[in-house]
Design a protein that fits this description.
The structure is a homodimer. With about 450 residues, chain A is α/β, with parallel strands linked by helices. The first copy, chain A, folds into 2 domains: about 110 residues, Roll (Urease, subunit C, domain 1); about 290 residues, TIM Barrel (Alpha-Beta Barrel), CATH 3.20.20. Chain A is about 35% helix and about 20% strand. The first copy, chain A, is built from 15 helices and 19 strands. In chain A, the strands form 3 sheets. Chain A has an 8-stranded parallel sheet with strand order 8-9-10-11-12-13-14-15. In chain A, strands 3-2-7-16-17-18-19 form a 7-stranded mixed sheet, with helices on one face. In chain A, helix 2 packs across helix 15 and helix 4 runs parallel beside helix 5. Chains A and B meet through helix 2, helix 9, helix 11, helix 14 and helix 15 of A and helix 2, helix 9, helix 11, helix 14 and helix 15 of B.
Chain lengths: ~450, ~450
């Protein structure tokens, strides 16, 4: 045991640590030192806390699971404004008759900031410490994240509909460049990226322009892909091929492309994604609620494709709780394959932590509890009736726990939530701002 | 408005009332009077509380949904002792290699009482006010429910395995009669019933004996039915027919039979269940986690079959939160049918309340908020980030809320949970009792 440490800022003692490095590792009664925002050391056994000097904050994690903060690899934060506005509808009806019109009327800088802040509140309270957002007026999402102390990948959106914050093809390169340059060194919490809505709402030219900028600046390119059978039909009509082939032929598939949904894929398309080292964002609750379909996740994992978990926008989910997505992913693939061994609890926790970090290209910085990495850590209180008794920590996280069981969230070494209270924002004001927007939406 | 009331014991004012009579009815700012354990009156509008005299307790439901307590139509409470003991396994392996052996060694009066009490704590905290349990040493479940102020249907279990609390066929009639007679007038909270484990673990003789007693005393007869393809195969081998036909030929199908799971049914079997007015307990999370399959719920509802929601035992789920089952039912049938309109949020809330009451034959007493019915009422706090904004109450209950959002549970006019604190039990002691059992299970 090495005890030659500088005095940590925060010391977490006790509980059950899941390092996720390697996945499956369980350390009972750890002592974790956090210094300058990073994980400084991990020791084992019960050590008198005074041993480490004048620590600013000592966190007693007795009875808790200590684990990496969850990574939400696909979301549209500002859609909190439309949470539950329209349900129980087919995706295209939901999108064309409800969501796109509501976005056209009510989405602006102000509502994106307000909606993003509410989403961040919800995510922190349910154990997510890194999100990946794709939307419009994306700078507002970055501003909200910095204000709240949240880590995020913010992907400026592009769509060929004349309703949002860009007008013509000619401006797209400039907008994309400006966005990446403005955000790439702004804050250690923020990573810029670019997002094209889908192959059916973006022209080949738009897709190529945006991916070109992403490549030039080394940021991720994100896109909804093969979400519905309707999309497959549209792309076939327009381009005579399947969506993955379409993107492949446009040279969009590489290790910095994150494809969300990826439901209607055949083996050939799965092979193309694997060969391109494309990353996949799996959003089971959204896919189920919209009746979109079931992504072939076991087939992706067999091919070594990196798969993370996302909530999607919470107009199609309708919350941002990754614990729900973990349980859903584990159960959905069991029943859909008829094989209850197809996706274990441990594998699902991996998808929601270090797996998600790999999807975002951030596995060197987040996703596991390892000295040198960012101190993005959550505590889940196991002393609850629904988490009693405790045989296997991974099982409880996936099959029994919920976001409401998270009692502390630390992001970059800063405690942003403690005992279910958010420390970096005025929650009542955050909720009220979105309620005011909803009042306008309701009155049409 | 009728204001000629006796002074109520409890007055609930404000909030948004979902009466479920009819389903879909929404009353803003209700005033609900509770007297002698029953709902006495419902009025509308903001009325000064003093108007009703010296009320013992006035509950301010501002910002909350007020609704009937949830009805869990299929559970095995004592299995909390084995929560998370064995996951990610096929049903028959899980049952034969893990659960049956653990039950044989560790299930006794003491563990059933301890496990049931923990289950009741969890259920009350997540908004369930009536459970339907089928297990062994069932009297202990009744004792726990009475001690905790919980409403329950307790169904004494029968199984032809030499491991549990009865030994031979000859004793079954006596055991069943004694159980029903002992419990039928014991407490207004308790309704006795009888439970045969399944067509593959109970002989035709056992099934007939138990159903005969149930008929004679007018109590429900419960059974697991058509849960796995393996069961279908076994029944075909032994009896040359499908399980539903087997039960039909034994004259077991009537309106007082509750069949749990009902996954592998063809149209003919669905018609048999409908013709017999058999009730169905749908347990989506358990069915998914065990990879058992997807019950044809839309087909049941089209035939007018009463379907309620159950959690199943929490060794196969792994919690008892009916909010999770509501969200799961809504999403599972959408994705499985490819039709997002197949099961609406409102319909799912109906299944979890008045629909569940119909399944248990208790719709005259519970399941909706109507004068004269038992005062089984919960409050769900909507002033949370993940429930903001609020467009449609039913949507939030099914797609965004969780059991942890329930802030008050009233059963038979008694407040059993307030502000997330259980008022009728020592929760720490209840959890510790099950932890001690788990320690023995772990050490084998």
């Amino acid at each position: 045991m090495n005890t030659q440490h500088e005095t940590p800022d925060i010391l977490i003692t006790g509980g059950t640590l899941l390092t996720m490095a390697p996945p499956g590792e369980i350390v009972e009664d750890p002592v974790i030192g956090i210094r300058n925002g990073k994980i400084d050391f991990i020791e084992k056994g019960k050590i008198p806390a005074g041993h480490y000097g004048a620590v600013r904050e000592i966190v007693d994690a007795s009875g808790c699971i200590v684990m990496p903060g969850l990574v939400n690899v696909h979301a549209h934060l500002a859609m909190t404004c439309f949470r539950g506005l329209a349900d129980d509808l087919p995706l295209m009806t939901w999108l064309n008759d409800h969501i796109f019109p509501a976005e056209a009327r009510f989405i602006n800088r102000r509502s994106v900031y307000a909606g993003a802040m509410l989403a961040i509140a919800e995510m922190i309270l349910s154990g997510t410490t890194t999100f990946c957002d794709g939307y419009f007026f994306e700078g507002e999402v970055g501003r909200a994240a910095i204000a709240a102390g949240m880590r995020g990948v913010i992907a400026q959106g592009f769509i060929d509909l004349p309703v949002l914050d860009q007008s013509g093809h000619s401006e797209k390169t400039a907008i994309a460049k400006r966005f990446v340059k403005r955000w790439r060194d702004r804050s250690p919490l923020i990573t810029p990226a670019l997002f094209c809505h889908s192959p059916y709402t973006c022209s080949p030219e738009t897709l190529r322009i945006v991916k070109d900028v992403a490549r030039r600046y080394g940021v991720t390119f994100q896109i909804h892909l093969s979400e519905t059978r309707e999309e497959i039909r549209m792309i076939r009509e327009r381009h005579g091929k399947k969506p993955v082939q379409h993107l492949h032929d446009l040279d969009l598939l590489d290790q910095n492309t994150i494809a969300a949904h990826c439901i209607w894929l055949d083996d050939e398309e799965l092979d193309l994604l694997a060969a391109g080292r494309v990353k996949v964002a799996h959003d089971p609750e959204s896919n189920m609620k919209l009746g979109a379909g079931v992504a072939p996740v076991p087939g992706m994992l067999r091919r070594g494709i990196d798969v993370g978990l996302g909530t999607d926008g919470c107009a199609s989910n309708n919350n941002l709780d990754l614990f729900g997505e973990m349980g859903m992913a584990a159960k959905l693939h069991k029943v859909f394959s008829g094989n209850p061994t197809v996706l274990t609890a441990e594998r699902v926790v991996e998808m929601a932590t270090i797996g998600g970090a790999r999807v975002l290209g951030m596995a060197d910085r987040i996703g596991s509890i390892v000295p040198g990495k960012e101190a993005d850590i959550i505590l889940v209180d196991m002393r609850k009736p629904h988490l009693t008794p405790l045989y296997h920590p991974f099982s409880h996280l996936v099959y029994a726990a919920g976001g409401a069981d998270v009692v502390m969230s630390i992001i970059g070494g800063r405690i942003v939530m403690k005992d279910r209270r958010l420390l970096q924002m005025d929650l009542a004001a955050v909720m009220e701002a979105v309620r005011r927007i909803a009042t306008r939406v309701k009155s049409g």
